[in-house]
Amino acid sequence: AQKVTQAQTEISVVEKEDVTLDCVYETRDTTYYLFWYKQPPSGELVFLIRRNSFDEQNEISGRYSWNFQKSTSSFNFTITASQVVDSAVYFCALSGEGDMRFGAGTRLTVKP
Amino acid sequence: KAGVTQTPRYLIKTRGQQVTLSCSPISGHRSVSWYQQTPGQGLQFLFEYFSETQRNKGNFPGRFSGRQFSNSRSEMNVSTLELGDSALYLCASSPDRGRMNTEAFFGQGTRLTVV
After folding, report:
1. Do B103 and A50 touch (CB under 8 A)?
2. Are residues A44 and B108, on separate chains, in Cβ contact within 8 Å?
3. What chain B residue is nearest to A40 in terms of C-alpha separation?
4. Which one of A17, A64, A74, B112 has the minimum C-beta count within 10 Å?
5. What is the pLDDT of residues A10-65, one digit of tens each?
6. β-bridge pairing A10-14 and A106-111
């Protein structure tokens, strides 16, 4: 069975603070993909990143960075110097042999 | 390249009615998946279609059904609507499912309200 856990339901930070969103997953598949999506108030899920199970390199894209650790089954997402526009719900997702499973999401609020 | 288009964006229906939602995937994408999003249950997988065939199905009652056409456009239908069906229904398209989703692009969703 596949499962994605985002233990943080809501996070509130002040602009320019760094924030890390946690994601822990469970799967028996040896090959799988992990994703992060952002859902702004408009509703559309915006693709942020995809990682396959064989690529544990961390990635940085501007203010965003991702830390993938198979040993702890975690795929955490860090926003550096957060901005008000980063306010959204962020979902971690896992895709293996079956359908794509999503975590419950973390609502991030960045206050000016 | 146009994104995933879902119509209508908003819908209000009465209990007992049926509803059909439409999704046009990104051009060239052959896989379409549907998800239901509610505050209580989060994002739940409904079903996936690939080349007009249902390839995977989530744990939803038979009132929820779908289909895919030869041009990859997909529709989902909910019959005998219940209040609990009120949700945001999201469609995602992928270029080729293969054995798993390697990338999925979502539409803006259809917000269904059942009264």
Report:
1. yes
2. yes
3. B108
4. A17
5. 999 999 999 999 999 999 988 899 999 999 988 889 999 988 888 888 888 899 99
6. parallel
